[in-house]
Specification:
Elements: H1 4-7, E1 16-17, E2 22-25, H2 31-47, E3 62-67, H3 73-86, E4 90-96, H4 99-109, E5 113-116, E6 125-132, E7 135-136, H5 139-157, H6 186-196, E8 208-214, H7 221-228, E9 232-238, H8 252-269, E10 274-278, E11 285-292, E12 298-302, H9 305-316, E13 320-324, H10 330-336, E14 342-345, H11 349-361, E15 367-370, E16 376-378, E17 382-384, E18 387-389, E19 392-396, H12 398-411, H13 415-420, E20 426-432, H14 437-446, E21 457-460, E22 464-468, E23 474-479, H15 486-498, E24 508-512, E25 517-521, E26 526-531, E27 538-544, H16 547-558, H17 564-571
Parallel strand pairs: 3-4, 3-5, 8-9, 8-10, 13-14, 13-15
Antiparallel strand pairs: 1-2, 2-6, 5-6, 6-7, 10-11, 11-12, 15-16, 16-19, 17-18, 20-27, 21-22, 21-24, 22-23, 24-25, 25-26, 26-27
Helix pairs in contact: 2-3, 2-5, 4-6, 6-7, 9-12
């Protein structure tokens, strides 16, 4: 008898965890792999008391499941549900729904949940994001989940092929592949009520908003929330075909297309205040302010997610802030002037969630975090207007959009005026597709301290090199010409060869290696390169005192075939 593994007509590839959740090529995400992933995750949750909050309840365990609008998502959802059923649990199918709406509902129910989504990554990829009954899967959970998945996977692959309910392609047999169940709208209603309770029907009266629908999963739900708060919402750009938009690295082509939508809406409806949208699974906001010029022309201003988060946090009046190291330095400067500490973390929601948990343990009362992509997380219940919004420690796109727009109405300021009042730091993000992970890893490994993982910051002075930890405490100081400092002095030379005076950079003064390589120069330029955790891509973030300079740094970085990042890859081969 053949085993299932022997009968497969392909070589199975086990998907791995990315920055947040499991992501892989759709061709590798067979029903078999998704089934194993789901069942292993459920076993891990059950063993570690992470499946349900109230274990004493006599009610059957019902697991909420939702998905985005990617073409492959429905198939992956069916495989996920098959595993849930075979574990003995019931399913609450929530249909196509924003990730934060699923998570918000599941946390309220006190039960684990599953979201099928690839978020913003390329169309040929997809993924699954599981949530524990008390919040997101943390980095400390990942290896335990992988161990359980491996057990399930080994059992199925080594079982007899003719007894398996998977075929030779790794797909569920026809008699096992049942139709999706009737969709529940309970999570949608719960999400609507979440915002209706704190943003009254007059909150956004007077604002005219273009909502860019395209293929975002929240394209029906989110405009309803905005209308419920009193806004005039014009929905445009709906697409029957899925295409991803990365709200953190919006291309000039996308900006041009969105401007055309604004011009079209303006010609038909009159003055437009803002265009909003989200990424594919609607946990990251996209906001473009519309500035009217004196000659009646308009200028669109993309509001980066990190600055959007700054404005939202100022509106919420909190006492604890956590943001990834890739964020705009204006955040540190702005809240530093208000004596509110800002914690820097690695990139990815599990890291900012961990920082929020530490803030709660330290006695902070109003706790928030956000990512450079704008996804906003709340680690405590927060008073808003005359109500209270419950903590939602996962990325959310809707809360920051509502808060930002309501702040504009309250202050009687345009979004552009609010932006112009912030410290003058300008950012730009870009990425290189199909950048081998081996190259990315080599760059980071060769240009960061190899002997001590606690070193986060390397500071260069004329006579010495200072090593600091993540809390900016000094670990060690070495004379610049000492053997101990030699590897980082060599790294400095490599980086200054790439980020050179000829390319407009000053002297390298500091490297932060918390996540990738964030390089600080004495002319106030910042260049940060980081491998993506979700796809073979390399990201570059740039900050400077002018938008033109930030744009230039990114253009120089991702230029093909011999931009700064490619040069760095070549230099580290030697």
């Amino acid at each position: 008898m053949k085993t299932l593994l022997e009968s497969l007509d392909y070589v199975p590839v086990q998907p791995g965890f990315g920055t947040s959740g499991v992501r892989a090529l759709v061709t590798d995400l067979t029903d078999l792999e998704i089934y194993c992933l789901t069942m292993g995750t459920l076993v891990y949750f059950a063993v570690n008391d992470l499946l349900v909050v109230d274990e004493q309840s006599q009610d059957p365990i019902k697991i909420p499941v939702a998905c985005d609008l990617r073409p492959s998502s429905e198939r992956l959802t069916r495989a996920t549900m098959k595993a849930i059923q075979n574990c003995g649990y019931q399913i609450e199918y929530l249909g196509t729904l924003p990730t934060p709406a699923l998570t918000c509902y599941a946390l309220n129910q006190g039960v684990a949940s599953f979201m099928i989504t690839g978020s913003h990554i390329p169309l040929d990829r997809n993924g699954q994001k599981a949530n524990r009954c008390d919040g997101e899967v943390m980095k400390s959970d990942e290896q335990g989940i992988v161990n359980e998945v491996n057990k399930v996977r080994d059992m199925l692959l080594n079982g007899e092929a003719d007894q398996s309910f998977f075929d030779q392609h790794g797909m569920l047999n026809a008699d096992q592949n049942s139709a999706l169940p009737v969709q529940s709208n309970a999570a949608e209603q719960h999400y609507l009520q979440r915002f209706a309770s704190v943003f009254p029907t007059h909150a956004l009266v007077g604002l005219r908003i273009v909502f860019f629908e395209y293929s975002a999963v929240g394209r029906d739900l989110l405009p309803t929330i905005l209308r419920n708060a009193g806004a005039d919402v014009i929905c445009m750009g709906r697409s029957d075909e899925f295409f991803p938009i990365d709200t953190e690295a919006l291309s000039d082509q996308h900006l041009h297309e969105l401007l055309q939508l604004v011009l079209e809406a303006r010609a038909k409806h009159g003055k437009i205040d803002v265009l909003v949208s989200t990424d594919g699974d609607s946990d990251r906001p996209l906001v473009i302010a519309v500035e009217e010029k004196t000659d009646s022309s308009i200028c669109p201003r993309f509001i980066p997610g990190d600055l959007l988060g700054l404005l939202v946090t100022d509106y919420l009046k909190v006492d604890s802030i956590s943001v990834p190291i890739s964020s705009n330095p204006a955040i540190q400067q702005y809240f530093g002037n208000k004596n509110i500490p800002v914690r820097s973390t690695r990139i990815g929601s599990p890291y900012v969630i961990d920082a929020m948990q530490k803030a709660k343990s330290a006695g902070n009362n109003s706790i928030v975090a956000w990512e450079a992509n704008g996804g906003y997380l709340t680690g405590s219940d927060l008073p808003i207007n005359t109500g209270v919004v419950d903590a939602l420690p996962t990325r959310d796109a809707m809360l920051p959009i509502l808060c930002l727009l309501h702040a504009s109405v309250q202050k009687q300021q345009s979004l552009c005026e609010m932006l112009d009042a912030l410290p003058a730091w300008y950012g730009k993000a870009g990425l290189l597709d199909n950048f081998p992970r081996s190259d990315s890893s080599r760059i980071v490994e060769q240009l960061t301290p190899a002997h001590d993982s606690t070193i986060c910051v390397v500071q260069f002075e004329p006579e010495r090199v200072t090593m600091r930890n993540v809390d900016n405490q000094i670990i060690a100081q070495y004379p610049a010409h000492s053997a101990e400092a030699s590897s980082m002095i060599n790294a400095k030379r490599v980086l200054e060869t790439v980020f050179s005076k000829q390319n407009g950079f000053g002297l390298l003064t500091q490297i932060n290696c918390l996540d990738g390589l964030r390089c600080y120069f004495d002319n106030d330029d910042i260049a940060h390169i980081r491998p993506s955790g979700n796809a073979p891509q390399l990201r570059i973030y740039a900050y400077s005192q002018t938008q033109n300079r930030a744009d230039t740094i990114v253009s120089l970085g991702i230029e093909e075939p011999a931009g700064l990042v490619r040069q760095m890859a070549n230099l580290t081969k030697r």
